[in-house]
Write a structure and sequence with these properties.
This is DUF3037 domain-containing protein. InterPro entries: DUF3037. Pfam families: DUF3037. The chain is α+β, with helices and mostly antiparallel strands. It has one domain. It is 36% helix and 29% strand. It contains 4 helices and 4 strands; from the N terminus they run E-E-E-H-H-H-E-H. A 4-stranded antiparallel β-sheet has the order 3-2-1-4, sandwiched between helices. It is globular and about 45 Å long.
């Protein structure tokens, strides 16, 4: 496929104390319908999260992110759901430690490369 395709993405963030609303970006979720692409890019900086929220259960954060990756892959309850349904499921607002940010739009010729670029740019 040539040319640019529209995509949607959302930051994935850790919000240790929901009542404070402070967060650290730990990943990017990217969906490109025309390229049949849905993936989660994650970069966890343990030291940064520990400094941001001493006592944060990093194992629980990793387990939650593994669940997000499983949903992207169509595992468990996501089995049989379309990529768009899975993206909508993952980007729905929630009051948990791992949350999606707002959805943004863009154009790309290579969703996988775009995901890597966004993770580098927005997560670090």
């Amino acid at each position: 496929m040539t040319g640019l395709s529209p995509f949607s993405y959302a930051l994935v963030r850790v919000v240790p104390r929901i009542e404070r609303g402070e967060c650290v970006n730990v990943g990017v979720l990217l969906f490109c319908k025309s390229r049949d692409f849905l993936a989660l890019g994650v970069r966890i900086d343990d030291a940064r999260l520990a400094a941001f929220s001493p006592g944060l259960d990093l194992g629980a954060v990793r387990a939650a992110l593994a669940g997000w990756a499983g949903t992207c892959a169509g595992d468990g309850p996501a089995e049989g759901k379309s990529l768009g349904e899975r993206f909508g499921w993952l980007t729905a607002p929630r009051s948990t430690i791992v949350q999606p940010g707002p959805t943004h739009l863009g154009l790309t010729g290579d969703p996988e490369a775009e995901l890597a670029r966004l993770v580098e740019l927005l997560v670090g």
